[in-house]
Task: structure prediction
Amino acid sequence: MSAIERFDRLFIGGEWVAPHAGTHIATIDPSTEDVWAEVASADETDVENAVAAARAAMRGPWGRTAPTQRGALIAKFADLVRRDAARLAEIESRDNGKPLRDTLGEVQRAADWLTFFAGAADKVNGDQIPYRPDALAYTRLEPVGVVVAILPWNSPISLASWKLGPGLAAGNAMILKPAEQTPASMVALAALALEAGFPAGVINVLPGDGAVGAALSAHPGVAKVSFTGSHDTAIRIMQSGSVNLKRCSFECGGKSPFIVFEDADFDKALSVATHSAFRSTGQSCSMASRIFVQRPLYERFAAELAGRAARIRPGAPFDPRTHIGPQTSAEQRDKTESYIALGRESGARVLAGGGRPAGLPKGYFVEPTVFADADNRSRIAQEEIFGPVTSVMPFDTEDEAIALANDTRYGLVGGLWTKDVSRAHRVAAQIESGLVSVNTFRPVHFMLPYGGYKMSGIGRENGFDAIRAFTETKTVVVDLSDAIPPDPFAD
Result:
């Protein structure tokens, strides 16, 4: 085993600070089950210090930084992320087990996200309102203040850029709380923020356990929490954040419908379904986890999807032959295996996978698994598994497909495949999801608003909608009239 790397400082107020309690997180390489790094772990004292530093930045130089200058700092930050993409991707792969080609792509896209929002920083405009001829009325979009970004373990750098980009462009100070399983890449990212030249306290990084996230969520000095993760945690954040009516934006998972009508381009739909069901080892909120196929295509589609799933090669993240890596933790692997067992018990057919791959005695690996004939009300079809498991189910009519797609508490992503233009628009309008795609799936881009209906979240990330989520609207009215109003209380 190689030497354990140490990330033994927190980043608070522009400085590398020893954790108050002197504790560290041991982070495990999920492909080997060995500890590969130790990362400093914050406590409530560190939380107090980080919030104070962020508030001081808002009152100090960051609050006086011109929008164009903010954009220039974000652009420099993006360039540094591109420069160090290989190193950042290596850290991410060791932390969460994704193949290196995937994490490298994610880091490069994170730089693109930051570049987009760098260009938006001096375009955060209010509106002039024609309230009345003798008054000037306008709105200002002002930063909400100190923002806490609580990150998931599946794509830390990518999702950090989704929050840092609009948050910084709008002029907020940020505190990043990475997941306990994958803290190292945020410490590396903090070093680039320091090099970029952000004023002290604008970006702070606090690795730690759930108690750190809870303390940040409840802190009265924090104005907003942006969180990606489970809806159960989001509910707790809302409850603790009620102390000062925090602004909240949440992305909380999905159980995405992937609808294939009988007139679809079969080969294209099959290829996209395979990728969309198993990329990132199924550890994404927007997987094609419920695949509905119109009955004339059903058996063929299910069989060919299973054949493709069987050819997917799980393996170590640095092996160029690897298609997908391990689950990020033993806990997540065990959870996925428990759902596979539930699927079998419910009567669904296993067409591919269902076990651990041969030849990989160590690591949190699960075979890509395809169920057929699942009941849409069964737990494998209703609950987010977050593993390489998908269910294929038949339907007969368009109305049935829509009803099945919407029969879930989630509503993040949906997709449909058809050559009928009228059907495409008709069905898209009825799917209860924040993002609906036709003849493609999950086209995520920094220009496209992304977020969920129902239990999939609150608010939108990406696009200019994201910037508005990090601002407060202030209305200003200036009376231009010289007329003196009558005294309403005169005799």
Observations:
- The CA atoms of residues 129 and 137 lie 5 Å apart.
- The chain has two domains: 5-252+456-476, 257-438.
- Residues 100-120 form the longest helix (21 residues).
- The chain is about 40% helix and 20% strand.
